[in-house]
From TrEMBL:
It comes from uncultured Acetothermia bacterium. Keywords: ATP-binding, Isoprene biosynthesis, Kinase, Nucleotide-binding, Transferase. This is 4-diphosphocytidyl-2-C-methyl-D-erythritol kinase. InterPro entries: GHMP_kinase_C_dom, GHMP_kinase_C_sf, GHMP_kinase_N_dom, IspE, Ribosomal_Su5_D2-typ_SF, Ribsml_uS5_D2-typ_fold_subgr. Gene3D superfamilies: 3.30.230.10, GHMP kinase, C-terminal domain. Belongs to the GHMP kinase family. IspE subfamily.
């Protein structure tokens, strides 16, 4: 008995840092959009009450409790009081340290997959609560589509899709960035009098990213990538989350494919993607906007 779940990546259409919270985290406002670049998780019932996690990935990832998939599985099994266990195969395609939410999406897919595998009577509210215990942006992937995120990203409001018909490229340079490092650099910039960028409205959404300058300080090659993308004249483009991945989108797939080819020839890691209406996909239940 097994279940297979696709865990979608996300992009951030802008990210504003509203201030520092008493708990030390940053208060943000952002717009999440899920895309069809995905990891795949296969969850299989085993009788022994344990979690067996195998990771197939081009990037080094821990197979134990340091992995969000393992932590999500632990939470569900403990919450449900199950005496059985699960074997999980995680096949990675979403780059690590890229600002695309791969680890959080994998955790959300694990929660959904286990509910399906064991036919658990977990409400969406209970699943959301478990997701929040794993990470602040894990709950988003239980919803997917276009959502406004507030707080640490966990206060979510679903809004109608604005990207119907668009296709996009996700472009990653050779560097990787940790969210913590980018926020530390952002705080340093503020201490030295730096001002966040002006509002950049697109269809009513502020697509400016307050973390972009900090990311460029840590990964200078982003400045060149930024210029290349601007010259390609996309309908919308920007850095996703804490970077270093950029997104660029066009309403015509032919333009997107031309841009993807040009960027790949310049040595960037490039993914062609489309927006999705959900953050996960049970196999044979794929929905694309």
């Amino acid at each position: 008995m097994s279940k297979t779940v696709r865990a979608c990546a996300k992009i951030n259409l802008g990210l504003r840092v509203l201030g520092r919270r008493p708990d030390g985290y940053h208060e943000i406002e952002t717009f999440f959009q899920s895309v069809d670049l995905h990891d795949t998780l296969t969850l299989e019932f085993i009788e022994r009450p344990e979690i067996q996690l195998e990771v197939v990935s081009p990037w080094a990832l821990p197979p134990g409790r340091e992995n969000l998939v393992y932590r999500a599985a632990e939470l569900v099994l403990a919450h449900a009081g199950l005496r059985a266990g699960v074997r999980i195969l995680l096949e990675k395609r979403i780059p690590v340290g890229a600002g695309l939410g791969g680890g959080s999406s994998d955790a959300a897919a694990t929660l959904v997959g286990l509910r399906e595998l064991f036919q658990l009577r977990l409400s969406d509210t209970e699943l959301h609560r478990l997701a929040l215990n794993v990470g602040s942006d894990v709950p988003y992937f239980l919803m997917g589509g276009l959502c406004r995120g507030r707080g640490r990203g966990e206060i979510l409001e679903k809004i109608p899709s604005l990207l119907c018909g668009h296709s996009l490229v996700l472009v990653k340079p050779s560097c990787s960035l940790s969210t913590e490092a980018v926020y530390r650099e952002y705080d340093k910039l503020l201490e030295h009098g730096w001002q966040p960028p002006a509002v950049q409205l697109w269809r009513g959404i502020d697509c400016a990213n307050d973390l972009e300058e900090a990311a460029m300080r840590l990964c200078p090659q982003l400045r060149e990538l930024r210029c290349i993308l601007r010259d390609l004249k996309p309908d919308l483009w920007g850095m996703s989350g804490s970077g270093p991945t950029y997104y660029a989108m066009w309403p015509e797939p032919a333009h997107t494919e031309i841009a993807a080819s040009a960027l790949a020839q310049q040595g960037y890691t490039v993914f062609f993607a489309r927006p999705t209406s959900t953050g996960y996909e049970l196999v044979d239940d794929c929905r694309v906007d």
